TrEMBL record:
GO cellular component: membrane
PANTHER family referenced in this protein's UniProt entry, alphabetically: DISEASE RESISTANCE LIKE PROTEIN, LEUCINE-RICH REPEAT RECEPTOR PROTEIN KINASE EMS1-LIKE-RELATED
Keyword match Cell wall biogenesis/degradation: no
UniProt signal peptide: 1-27
Protein's name according to its UniProt entry: Leucine-rich repeat-containing N-terminal plant-type domain-containing protein
Protein localization: Membrane
Domain of life assignment: Eukaryota
Residue span(s) of domain Leucine-rich repeat-containing N-terminal plant-type: 35-86
Pfam families xref list: LRR_1, LRRNT_2
Keyword Signal: yes
């Protein structure tokens, strides 16, 4: 009798453990996005019109077309195209609407800025109709990646961008943006985690950054001379420097061998550089200088490159 009771109790215990496990699994599988964030996404969708001319990428398509109130519990926005949710909380943490045919103006009242848990936001290759970057971008303090390139933004880069202290990647390239007071140089100390930066012009605030790993300023219509401070930028950490496809005419100091110890790629192609061939650091693997106006003898220092 005692053994039977013990066997029965063991079965009950195993049943309770299995039931708890299954409950947790089902709960995880059925975790949908929050109603408030689903509503914010739908209002974001309605704030734009879809226009194929708004995106240049040949693979572009209207991602928001899949955003509909259909299916389970009014539609799970975590399954919508371009939307990424946290598996535990259901909060929207990623939004990739790059090359989505979005056309229209955007301001700080847009429901986008109610998605306070966003960590990654990509709006590149759309047309926001010469809008200024809304100051409400500062509400998205969890952002680590922000890509607004090729999106028709104009005007001053807002102060609030520099409130995003978790940013690791910031791409504002190929927009006619301005750097006026307050300058980004003054605010740069707030971007302590920034590793990848794309902008429209040589940004002065890089003077105070010593851990940049990749700097891409290609095809930004930058005119004039390469400032001398570029050659000492993040000497320990810089791996890639791309200044190609601009209108750079030369260097504002005599050419010296840069002090970068980890630079692997230096791209100066398709500019208007004049004079002798610049000598890259010894760490270089890829060095591009074609389509310039360079002339003179090739320095023996080039032979020391790996």
């Amino acid at each position: 009798m005692g053994q039977l009771l013990q066997h029965f109790l063991l079965k009950c215990l195993l049943f309770l453990i299995l039931s708890h496990f299954l409950t947790q699994c089902v709960s995880s599988m059925l975790r949908f996005c929050l109603d408030s964030e689903r509503s914010a996404l739908l209002r974001l969708k309605d704030s734009f019109i879809l226009n194929q001319s708004a995106s240049d990428d040949t693979l572009a398509y209207p991602k928001v077309s899949s955003w509909k109130l259909e299916g389970q519990v009014g539609g799970d926005c975590c399954s919508w195209d371009g939307v990424e949710c946290d598996n535990n909380t259901g909060h929207v943490i990623g939004l990739d609407l790059s090359s989505s045919f979005l056309y229209g103006s955007i301001n700080s009242n847009n429901s986008l800025f109610q998605l306070h848990h966003l960590r990654r936001l990509n709006l590149s290759d759309n047309n926001f109709n010469r809008s200024e970057i809304p100051s409400a971008i500062g509400n998205l303090t969890r952002l680590s990646r922000l890509d607004l390139s090729w999106s028709g933004f104009t005007g001053q880069i807002p102060y609030e961008v520099l409130q995003l202290s978790n940013l690791v990647i910031l791409d504002l390239s190929r927009n006619p943006l301005e750097l006026r007071n307050p300058s980004l140089k003054i605010l740069s100390e707030r971007l302590v985690n920034l590793k990848h930066l794309d902008l429209h012009k040589f940004p002065d605030f890089l003077l105070s950054q010593d851990e940049v790993e990749l700097l891409d300023l290609r095809d930004n219509k930058i005119h004039g001379f390469i400032p001398k401070w570029i050659w000492g930028l993040s000497a320990q950490t810089l791996h890639v420097l791309d200044l190609s496809e601009n209108f750079l005419r030369g260097f504002d100091q005599p050419i010296v061998v840069p002090q970068w110890i980890n630079l692997r790629l230096l791209d100066l192609r398709s500019n208007m550089l004049q004079g002798p061939l610049p000598i890259p650091p010894a760490s270089i693997y890829q060095y591009f200088v074609s389509n310039n106006l360079l002339k003179g003898e090739i320095s023996s220092g080039i032979c020391n490159c790996t």
